Amino acid sequence: xxxxxxFCHSFLVFAALVACTPTDETPPAAEVEAVAIYxxxxxxxxxxxxxxxxxxxxxxxxxxxxxxxxxxxxxxSLVWRRLLLAEARQLGLDQxxxxxxxxxxxxxxxxxxxxxxxxxxxLEQPTExxxxxxxxxxxxxxxxxxxxSVFHLFRRLTGMLTKDELVAQVRDVRRRVAAGxxxxxLAAELSDSESRHQEGFIGRIVPGQLPIAFEQVIFGxxxxxxxxxxxxxDGAHLFFVDAIVPARTTSFDEARSMLRRDLLARxxxxxxxxxxxxxxxxxxxxxxxxxxxxxxxxxxxxxAVVLRLGDFEMRLGKFRRLVAREEEQLPLSQKLLLxxxxxxxxxxxxxxxxxxxxxxxRAGEELAPDAAAELEVxxxxxxxxxxxxxxxxxxxxxxHDRLEAYYEGNKKRFSSPLRLQIRRLTLPLTEDxxxxxxxxxxxxxxxxAGVLDLAAAGARLGGEFEDxxxxxxxxxxxxxxxxxxxAGRMARGDVSPPYTTATGELAIFEITRRQEPExxxxxxxDTAVRSAFLQRHGxxxxxxxxxxxxxxxxxxxxxxxxxxxxxxxxxxxxxxxSPSSSVAVEEGEG
Length: 590
Fold this sequence. Notes:
It contains 23 helices and 16 strands. The protein has a four-stranded antiparallel β-sheet. A four-stranded antiparallel β-sheet has the order 6-5-8-7. A four-stranded antiparallel β-sheet has the order 13-12-15-14, with helices on both faces. A hairpin with a 2-residue loop joins strand 7 and strand 8.
């Protein structure tokens, strides 16, 4: 027999188990062949079988080997979940306002989905002609053109040199690169382009991104061979290709399944919109147009109503949290592109959900039993996650000395962030961008010398000047990655080089104040210390919680019976591909 004091828990298994429905009533151990027993219940082979079936397919595949340890972990996890559920309910956590609000949101989403699924007309499978048309219309999506990693050096034509003298200088740079010098270092030293601040790197270029004359040169170069100088009205350019990624063409057969999914999804979205648009608004409803919604967001009153439909009301404070949660799921590049439209997207989804809930309730519809059962499991999972955080928090409360020792050994991690006071000037990016860039370069020199104010320059050039206030580098990265790249290395009073923003403007900014990082006292850094400590030692603490809990209830594992059950399961799975009660693995699930 194996006791709970040396039981080792797997995070992956527990994460999957929070979606499993526990057995509410466990028969006495004498009436079943128990794989494990504990004070208050047993774990049977049937319990384990269901737990395995509820795991994602990849985790189930890992159980095909006759290794007992994952099954030991799975058995202990079942008991741990049952115990936590019982404790959380006894403490009244299932009635906590925050939990009830989250569960209400889950219920409304499930009810809306159920109603729309019933109301939707049957989707028509796209024809071969429709699939082919979509493929041709989206050819650029499936054909990956040749891409080149490109570096650039530019020397601007000024009154100091003739064009021939400038070209001679650029040819000399080309000669030095051909002789083995680093193009990147030479670009950082000699280029007049903003790309010099990235050692001349302008990115992975595909056809259509640059002027045709430049692309003809770039896509005609061999790797590691600098181009000949390209002379334009404002100077001379040199290009260098560091790496070439060959083009790849996706065939229609390869794209067919993705196109079918996309066309069906679009068909469904159009049908949902039509259903929702036909639902009558209840009296007293408030559904702002996009301009009204943006005005509410700018005003910023957290108590302002942004949506009212029947008994449902959403206020701005909660709506902002919904938007922030959606943005957190996006990579940084998409955050920047979608930031302006994200509130509208979230609002549209919320409105559709609530209109469907309204229609479902008017029709007297309720969730189907299987959907209600799934919702209950999800609610239990949310409650368990909350209770688990509480338990870990209590564990940390009793570890003050260890936390303080961790802080002392990692003090530099717990500093206030560098904050920079920034004033920025932006200009629209027009066809005369090169001339504007040169003018901003000149302004930069004057501003750094203290003989020009950016606000005055903005008024003169017709640009937009703004004081961004104190910002951390993280905040700057969210707003403008290039700004953050420059700002972290700039001193107070320094002015950035001109650059193009992610939103397609020319910009230049100055640092008017630097608030340097300072190591925070332990008391002020407490939350950050606890979070960092959990990241480092969370697995260890969690193992200890489980081990202590299982020991408290005299958890005992019958190794022989478990081994016999596992051997039977593994051999049964190997002998049959069809789903059964013997650790069935459904391909494509999970």
